[in-house]
Amino acid sequence: MTHELTTTEQDILLTTARQALENAVRGDPVPQIELDDLPPALREPGASFVTLTIAGNLRGCIGALDPYQPLALDVQEHAVAAALQDYRFPRVKPAELPHIQVEVSALTPRTRLEYQGPRDLIARLRPHIDGVILQDGLRKATFLPQVWDKLPDPEEFLSHLCMKMGGSGDLWRKKKLDVFVYQVQEFQE
Question: Which end of the chain is more exposed for a tag (fewer CB within 10 A), N or C?
């Protein structure tokens, strides 16, 4: 995402996600997207996460950190994956569809966050603005900026992110990790 998406573009992406979600959960073919019919911003390569919630509780969330396909296709793919492939949850059932709220996060390109040590890392984080990627060799994990709402303390945020990556909660204090940040434009039904 290189610019702010308009309300119309956001609505198209939410409709795309909803249709893909409902068709996939019901076992129907996912609608074919006609890229030529879309605004240019939705045809450009883009990275997104699609988050599904029921009554404010997470029900699935899958996405990509780097763009590899047009944004509209990325949102469609991740809506299906959030419903059927998030290993943390059973597959979404048709009876759940009326209760699911769809949220789309369109990501900016990631940038490396240079830091000198644990205290400097904490000082450079921008809660509620930055999504954070931690990487330790082949292991990596991310939290979208929205996660700051549930984990507002930067130390706790980093500890949970280390555990999500498969490391100990204090790994960020003991070892210099590769850290990247990005921002999102988030919108929901």
Answer: C
Contact at 8 Å (CB) between 158 and 108?
Answer: no
Q: What angle do CA 50, 56, 60 make, to 5 degrees?
A: 35
Residue appearing with tokens 């999102």: 184
Distance separating alpha carbons of residues 70 and 3, to the nearest angstrom: 14
> Domain 111-183 belongs to what architecture?
2-Layer Sandwich (3.30)
Domain with residues 7-108, CATH architecture: 2-Layer Sandwich (3.30)
- Arithmetic mean of pLDDT, 75-97: 96
Tens of pLDDT along 33-74?
Answer: 999 999 999 999 999 999 999 999 999 999 999 999 999 999
Does the pLDDT at position 3 exceed 90?
no
